[in-house]
Amino acid sequence: MTELAATAVTGGIAIITLDNPPVNALSAPLRASLLRALKQALGDTAVTAIVLICAGRTFIAGADITEFGKAPQSPSFPDLFAAIEQAAKPVIAAIHGTALGGGFELALACHYRLAAESAKVGLPEVHLGLLPGAGGTQRLPRLVGAEAALDIITSGRQIGAREALALGLVDALVSDSNLRKGAIAYARDVVAQGSALPKARDRSDRIAADREKPTLFSDFAAANSRRFKGFAAPRAIISAVQAAVELPFEEGLTREAALFEQLVASHESAAQRHVFFAERAAGRVPDLPADMPIHEIHSVGVIGAGTMGGGITMNFLNAGIAVTLVETTQDALDRGVTVIRRNYEATVSKGRMRAEQVEQRIGLISPTLDMAALSDVDLVIEAVYENIDVKREIFGKLDNIVKPGAIMASNTSFLDLNRIAAATRRPESVVGLHFFSPANVMRLLEVVRGAKTSKPVIATAMHLAKRIGKVAVLSGVCDGFIANRLLAPRGAQAEAMMLEGTPIAEIDRVLVEYGFAMGHFQMMDLVGLDVIGRDATERTVMGDLVAAGRLGQKRGAGYYDYDDKRRPSASATTADMIDAVANARNIASDPTVGSEAVLARLLYSVVNEGAKILDEGIALRASDIDIAAVLGYNWPVYRGGPLFWANQIGLNRIVAEMRELEGRYGEAFRPSDLLVRLAEKGLVFGDAA
Length: 689
Ligand code: T1G
Hints:
The chain folds into three domains: about 5-265, Alpha-Beta Complex (2-enoyl-CoA Hydratase, Chain A, domain 1), CATH 3.90.226; about 300-480, Rossmann fold (3-Layer(aba) Sandwich), CATH 3.40.50.720; about 505-585, N-(1-d-carboxylethyl)-l-norvaline Dehydrogenase, domain 2 (Orthogonal Bundle), CATH 1.10.1040.50. α4 (about 135-145) crosses α11 and α11 (about 235-245) runs antiparallel to α12. By secondary structure, the chain is an alpha/beta fold. The model has no long low-confidence stretch (mean pLDDT about 95). Bound molecules: (2S,3S)-3-hydroxy-2-methylbutanoyl-COA.
């Protein structure tokens, strides 16, 4: 059996190299192999010190997440880490890439930590609904103090090598190209010094100081209550770090383990682990060979410098890609560039960007009123308003301007991409790139595959998404593609319940209680009712509100009234408008009572739409639909997305309840064929039906 941890001894230094592609996840086989190598080196009298280093692109990136939920396999993390920490010879972690989770926790159990200059360390377990379960909540506070430890663990952020050195997380830095040699030299120096081996667990100075701050933990919890709302892991992390300050090390480890076991068994963590893998699965397109040639994208054109065009442009500027920005008037062009500049300046003021980067990025824009300037770009993204004739006219012109092989993309959010492609002589080069507002923030990018879009163009779009920090989900052509189509029923049901007499504040409260950042009507007010402007075929409350100038939060009144702090409150005017529209449309009063009943109306309709999107082949897989909801509509990540959530409820129960709802509310609740097939076979979304 090839050992995943191989040892080479040079000049008395044992270098144990871990090699478990792609990210050296600390799987059970790797833990076992490492323990064998460690014991062998400790028993070898020729060995005076031990270096742990990794092959490939990164140090250990954490426990093997695929092992969660399975029977634990030895050696356990605590056993392996105790063997390292209690070793009689110096053990030095040589870190490159990203030492994360259990990987960084292993480094904390080592006596010394060396980092390559480009390395990063972190404890991102919180993003999986977990906490560092291998001593991280106990060792880290002893090195950096409770406050820094709470920030690092609850944020899950990656810390660059220089900051790690300053914090005392690593002991020295070496150049990227010199990590192995630097670690050997460092080991030799450690041996030569012959001093006692430092153990993080023995450090008490930092936590002694923390014991003098009795409200440290309650203050931290209170200061972050909004950010942590609905999430179990942050609260558990606070408890674990508090145990590090208040309990002896071993008791703190026991406390940490108990909290970890609770989290790893929770629905929330299962949902967040599902999202982790779903994000990565979304980038895989079955019918695209792995070696599919892609177009090199060195320059981009964006047509339209409005809200979407500006946000789209920023994605490319952030990736260092030049953008030719086209508008029809100088005023619109100037306004577009000004908004981009202001966005960057706001980021600088938050300390998340250096001031000199603003000019660097703005300097990548070539503003122009002349579409002919797009003749040499590799990709053009059209981001003008949603009118099929305007888009077809633009693509007809582009066809005569852009170079052979250039990709022409539309940011359309629901129009028929095939009709847009048909305006050109090269539909194989036309693709949809549907960004979500604000386009420079939302991570979802729907790549819309037209009937004639070529495979290299799809492969290029999927690859480009990752390059600009987006998660691409491939969509077929339909009204609303995936995310907008998926969530439309939630709005329809919310507005139906409103007209039946269910208070809009109750509907919104149920959605916020479920975990959405805000309810349906509050979101409409935030976006602006005039912006949403639907092609209503009949009288609507929104239409009456707009006619009355109640455009939403920006006007201090929409569905809700807003005080000077923009806090929403019930509006008698809106209540009267609801009654007037309900009467005009002969809608009987029949309020939906109870949170569960309101939630079922709102979200079962979404689950049903997701099943249709999947059954029609618009989405490649169930988890893509979950990703579209989580990343496109902020579906609470600890719910895993609509289809993952439906699986947890049980499809049989959903079908039965939908049939009752169908009897009262009709078609929208007729269970889709796929949903019925899965339920009848005792299957779940994600199974082949
Ligand atoms: N376990 C299993 N597979 C993993 C993995 C992991 N920890 N990390 C990544 N992969 C797979 C991933 O699914 C993908 O597979 C491939 O590796 C490349 O990943 C005890 C309990 C390291 C920053 O949360 O953040 O330790 O799709 O596409 O963009 O306290 O992967 O190719 O088949 O993301 O270069 C804590 C998770 C675990 C880190 C690299 N650690 N990973 O990003 O590549 S819990 C994490 C990442 C834990 C301890 C606790 C990123 C990355 P495939 P990728 P990347």
